[in-house]
Automatic annotation (TrEMBL):
This is tRNA (cytosine(38)-C(5))-methyltransferase. It holds the Pfam family DNA_methylase. GO terms for cellular component: nucleus. It comes from the Eukaryota. Its EC number is 2.1.1.204. The active site is at 84. Belongs to the class I-like SAM-binding methyltransferase superfamily. C5-methyltransferase family. GO terms for molecular function: methyltransferase activity. Keywords: Methyltransferase, S-adenosyl-L-methionine, Transferase. PROSITE patterns: C5_MTASE_2, SAM_MT_C5. Residues 221-248 are annotated as: Disordered. It is an enzyme of class 2 (transferase). One of its GO terms (biological process) is methylation.
């Protein structure tokens, strides 16, 4: 891709959190400058500043942003991820009446008044936003200001990343068109561009952080015009769809040698019963047996059509932990009593449920937990026990026998670094000293998938 002759994209990053949008800009390969980042969360700001110390980062509520200040920034792109709580399935759905929505509505009012509109706008939120009154106000604002826009519902699973995180996205371009045909329907796939080899106006001649090919969009099939239905999985509004096309997956989308670069792969268990004939096949067979034995302990979405041979296993995103490090993430006996509502995965699987801000503090619907035990018989016993426990609903009566069985599974939380890996934050994303694991989980749960947003940014400016 040839170097750009254009000026860098001047970006305003709102609700900036821990910098997911900024990392997505970096991965996209475009030439950009973040003029200002704004967030009110002090922990998130501490992490953002630690990773991007040279960015002008301010902490204030966006309802205090003035038209004069916004005009003075002279930005031509606004990237934002407004608070999702007013739109989550398990929340009160206060929508535009929720106090947390007011800053976003204020911003829409400012955009209407701007004499020079930003060329690009990208909005990310939870599934459910697309049916909200706030969304109606957003598209009304964009339409009256001369924007072309397209809405999406996308999940990282479509890129082979083993994590559910179905999210709403909107791309908008002022007084211009995209390099794909827009539709009033919500797209559930990345569109195929009409001129895939045309260089983006703002792209630099540099590789992306995750090995995206320059012609990455040729990997995607034409869009579907039908939005997917909700999934009943319990989380904070991040439920997944099961109707997305298998054609969107490509093994070339992400190079995970770049994710968690200095983190070794998870250790392969020493299976004593392996034959010497074909140990790789034996490992595959053992993983298949383990998967079948523990099927009852998972939400069985690994059957989804877009989880296929090109999907990455969780092991590629996981750390190699010493026994000492592992112990701090093991579930306590108190947490094991919630065994029947857990989504339990193991490293060879290719899917985990969405991580929410409650992860590490709650086990129901807040994210998958990892089974480190590789014993098929133990797994089968635990799976059978779950069936009985669901029927009896007697977890508070469990004694040493039941808890001993569950301890043998060696269930643990994903580490914060592993969650960051599954969200495609690069290896040079780090946390500053003094941030607790609970704080890390909370801000990661409020963040976004960097790779998905990077693809959308590249699509938007091409």
């Amino acid at each position: 891709m040839s170097a750009s002759t254009q000026q860098p994209l001047r970006v305003l990053e709102l609700y900036s959190g821990i910098g997911g949008m900024h990392w997505a800009l970096e991965e996209s390969g475009i030439d950009y400058e973040v003029i200002l980042a704004v967030d009110i969360n002090t922990t998130a700001n501490k992490i953002y500043h630690h990773n991007f110390p040279d960015v002008n980062l301010l902490s204030f509520g966006l309802e205090k942003l003035s038209l004069k200040k916004l005009e003075s920034l002279r930005v031509n792109a606004i990237l934002m991820s407004p608070p999702c709580q007013p739109f989550t399935r398990v929340g009160k759905k206060g929508d535009c009446n929720d106090v947390r929505t007011q800053s976003f509505l204020h911003l829409l009012h400012l955009i209407k008044q701007l004499e020079k509109k930003p060329t690009y706008i990208l909005v990310e939120n939870v599934k459910g936003f697309e049916t909200s009154q706030t969304r109606e106000l957003l598209v009304e604002c964009l339409s009256c200001c001369g924007y072309t826009y397209q809405e999406f519902l996308l999940t990282p699973l479509q890129s082979g990343i083993p994590n559910c995180r179905l999210r709403y996205y909107l791309l908008a371009k002022c007084f211009g068109t995209f390099n794909f045909s827009v539709s009033p329907q919500v797209f559930t796939e990345m569109p195929q561009m009409h001129h895939r080899h045309r260089a983006a106006e703002h792209c630099e001649n540099k590789p992306s952080s995750y090995g995206l090919s320059e012609d990455v969009y040729s990997l995607y099939s034409p869009v579907s015009s039908h939005p997917p239905p909700s999934n009943p999985n319990k989380d904070d509004g991040s439920s997944e769809s099961h109707t997305l096309s298998t054609e969107t997956i490509s093994k070339d989308n992400v190079s995970h040698a770049q994710i968690g670069q200095n983190i070794g792969p998870i250790s392969v268990p020493d299976f004593h019963n392996l034959s010497s004939g074909n140990p790789e096949q034996e490992l595959d067979n053992h993983a298949a047996e383990l998967k079948d034995a523990g099927r009852n302990m998972r939400y069985c979405e690994e059957e989804e059509k877009f989880v296929n041979k090109h999907s990455r296993p969780l092991s590629e995103f996981m750390e190699t932990l010493s026994d000492k490090d592992l112990n701090q993430y093991l579930l306590s006996d108190k947490e094991l009593r919630f065994f029947v509502v857990m989504d339990i995965v193991f490293p060879a699987l290719k899917k985990s449920i969405c991580f929410t801000k409650r992860y590490g503090h709650y086990v129901e619907g807040a994210g998958s937990v990892v089974q480190m035990c590789t014993d098929v018989q133990v797994t089968r016993e635990a799976s059978n026990f779950k069936s009985l426990a669901v029927e009896l609903q007697n977890s508070q009566e469990w004694q040493e026998k039941e808890l001993s069985l569950l301890r043998r599974l060696k269930l643990r939380y994903f580490t914060p670094r592993e969650v960051a890996n599954l969200l495609c934050f690069p290896s040079n994303f780090t946390f500053p000293d003094g941030v607790s694991n609970i704080q890390k989980y909370r801000v990661l749960g409020n963040s976004l998938n960097v790779h998905v947003v990077a693809m959308l940014i590249k699509l938007m400016v091409t």
